[in-house]
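Field reference: sequence -> structure
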Amino acid sequence: MNGPYQAGTPCWIDLMVPDQQAALDFYRDLFGWQGEIGPAETGGYSVCTLKGRPVAGIMKAMNPDGTAPDPMPPTVWTTYLATDSIDATLKSVTDAGGSVMMGPMDVMDLGRMAVITDPTGAAVGLWQYGTFAGAGIVNEHGALIWNELNTGDTKAAAAFYSAVLPLTTAATEMPGAEGYIEFKVGGRAVGGMMDLSALPAGVPPHWLPYFHVDDVDSIQAAAERAGGSVMAPAFDMAAGRMAVLADPQGGTFAVIKASAPEQPA
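Structure field:
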């Protein structure tokens, strides 16, 4: 990857967990990531690497003073969308009916970040590139390949994201995936969106990261052996074979062996 991601493109993911070391161990064993608890000045934030390049972040859930939150927030993967200007995007977010959960804030010289909630209730991060562009490896085994918004109102979500970032939406042209919606930047698919009605009742709106793997079934089995959960057992679909899993602390993610890998970055 050379240079920053185009605005609107998913560029990074991170996970907030009660037990950071346990999460580092789980994803190391599952995907081959390398990472350790970071220095105090970064709140211990871990930048995990694969083949020596940044692939995802893992951090401990804590209050600004370093104490444990009560109640503990849910363990979730956060998708970050690239933006050229955090401040301008945040103004568009509030104008378009979204809300700001956190930020904006400078992350040393790495960049600026914020976390927002879209009008349908899904949380997503924003990242303005400084010295850190985001994921340095994608579309390989153990690395991010796709990000998907699951929402109860796809029309409202499409209108919102198109209003706040240079994103467009269109129905996919992939045979067998009728009804699936793609987010596009510059005419290129960078993410997807589907209606929550396809998921079990009670699942809240969310962004879901997909990791490319060479063998979905063996990864599913390995996740179970390590204490993870299977939310949707391995199945074949239009884009390949996939499963939806959760780590032992509840962080949900998908794995896919793509028949024709997408190129989100």
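Note: The two ends are 8 Å apart (CA to CA).
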